[in-house]
Structures are given as structure tokens and as C-alpha cells.
Amino acid sequence: MLKLTPLLLLLAYGLVMYRFSVWRTKKELDEKSTELADRKLKELTDRMAKALDLDRIRVNIYEIAPVNGLAAPDGRIFITRGFFDQYRNGKVTAEEMASVIAHELGHVALGHSRRRMIDFSGQNAIRMTLGGILNRFLPGLGWAIASALTSLLAAKLSRQDEHEADAYASALLVKSGIGTGPQKSLFAKLEKLTGSGSGSQPAWLLSHPKTAERVAAIEAREARWLPND
Ligand SMILES: [Zn+2]
Predict the structure, then answer these.
(1) pLDDT, tens digit (0-9, with 9 covering 90-100), for 181-199
(2) 184 CA to middle of ligand 1, Å?
(3) What's the gap in Å between 161 CA and the centre of ligand 1?
(4) Could you tell me the distance, in angstroms and rounded to a whole number, from the CA of residue 15 to the centre of ligand 1?
(5) What span, in angstroms and rounded, lies between the C-alpha atoms of 176 and 168?
(6) What is the pLDDT of residues 94-144, one digit of tens each?
(7) What is the C-alpha to C-alpha distance for residues 96 and 131, in angstroms, rounded to an integer?
(8) Residue 34 DSSP SS3
(9) For residues 218 and 170, is the Cβ–Cβ distance under 8 A?
(10) DSSP per residue over 111-174, as a string?
(11) In angstroms, rounded to a whole number, what is the distance separating the alpha carbons of residues 81 and 164?
């Protein structure tokens, strides 16, 4: 029993870390967001809502500079202020913004946003617990191995999620009559907008599949869906 105590302590610590992280994320989003109001975008989200048999799709602006879209575990969808600014100054079209919203809707519909919360918050818990166990057999090395394994697992999970959310978005965009064109053109722009060419790649992009890979996947789906003439 005594031998188990450190393990139980680690598990308890992991659980506390997880709860704290969920709470902190929700608080941050609540404090720094407002509903997005843009006539042209609303026209497009209304078309997607109709395709999904929903009254409307609510989108929020998250007041941070980095260009990103995100789906919260409670199902809310956010576009960052930095991204919205790119749309406002004409660098990104309304249809391209709609493709981001469709992608985030995909994360919500497929249950990723909940799981991802577990990814983010749970990563620490897994790292601590696994590290604690491994370190008993490999003193000093255990932590490093646990850390590497946890990161690998998280990256793999999120790449899978991205492809699934892209597929959902493609289907929704086609059904709403917007088409997959904006989805593909945005990927090309995203690399520039997020400055990934400059070597200062934001962390969220690191876990994302390569742009070319994502475009190729969309085109493979198109080939299956659309009649070829
Ligand atoms: Zn995504």
C-alpha cells in the first residue's frame, strides 16, 4: 500500500492540474470575447446554418493578435481578433473566413474540442504520472522519455483531428454552395499570415498537418464526390 502512495499523489496532482486548466481556459475566453457581427459573414454562416438545419451559427471574436480559429470544449467557436483584422483589411475573403468557421464547427460536431481539452490539460497529467512510473526504473531518464512520448501522442491525435475537421468543412461548404475553393486558397495564405516561413512558427501550427497535405486530402475527396466530366 505504501508503495502505491506516490503514484496516487501523482494521479491526484494530475487531476487537480486538469481541473485548473479547464477552468482557466473558460475564464480567459469569457473575459476576452464578444460576438462577431459582420453582415457579409453572417450571410455565409446563415447558409451553413441552413445546410445544418440550425437557426444560426454564433461566432465569437477572441481578443488576441495571433491568427487562429478555435473551438472551445463547450462548443463555442472563436475567431481571433488578429484573424478578423486580416479579413477586414481584405487579405482574407469572407468565404475563406467561412471555411475556418466550418472547420471549427467540424471540431465541435466530431467531439474534438472536448477531447482536445483533455489533450491540452491531460498532457501534464499523463506526463507526470508516466514520468513518475518510468523514473523508478530509469532514474533521471524517465521524465525525458515520458515527456517525449506525451508530445508524440498529442501531435498524432491533433493531426488526425485536423484532417477530420477539414473533411467535415469540405462537406459543409459544398452543401452550402460555397464550395471548397476558399478552403484551399486559405491554406496557401495561412502560411504567410502566421509567418511560418520566417521560422517563427506558432505552436499551434506545429501540430497541424502540412498545407500541401491538407489541400491534397481535400482534392482527393472532391474527386470522390464530384462527377468528373
Ligand atoms: Zn483545427
Answers:
(1) 999 999 888 777 765 544 4
(2) 14
(3) 7
(4) 26
(5) 12
(6) 999 999 999 999 999 998 877 665 555 566 667 777 888 888 888 888 888
(7) 43
(8) strand
(9) yes
(10) THHHHHHHHHHHHHHHHHHHHHHHHHHSTTHHHHHHHHHHHHHHHHHHHHHHHHHHHHHHHHHH
(11) 25
Tell me, in angstroms, the distance from the centre of ligand 1 to residue 130's CA. Answer: 27
Q: What does 48-81 look like in DSSP terms, one character per residue?
A: HHHHTT-S---EEEE--SS--EEE-TTS-EEEEH
> 17 C-alpha to center of ligand 1: Å?
24
- Write down how long the chain is: 229
CA–centroid distance, residue 103 to ligand 1 (Å): 6
**C-alpha 164 – ligand 1 centre gap (Å):** 9
Task: Give whole-number Cα distances, 40 to 36, 51, 176, in Å.
Answer: 11, 17, 15
Do residues 98 and 84 lie in contact, with contact meaning Cβ atoms separated by under 8 Å?
no
Question: Within a 13 Å sphere around the CA of 146, how many CA atoms are in the beta-carbon half?
Answer: 21
pTM for this entry: 0.77
DSSP 89: T
- How many angstroms separate the alpha carbon of residue 83 from the centre of ligand 1? 14
Q: First vs last Cα of the chain: how many Å apart?
A: 71
Q: Give residue 206 CA to ligand 1 midpoint distance, Å.
A: 12
- Residue 222 Cα to ligand 1 midpoint, Å, equals 20
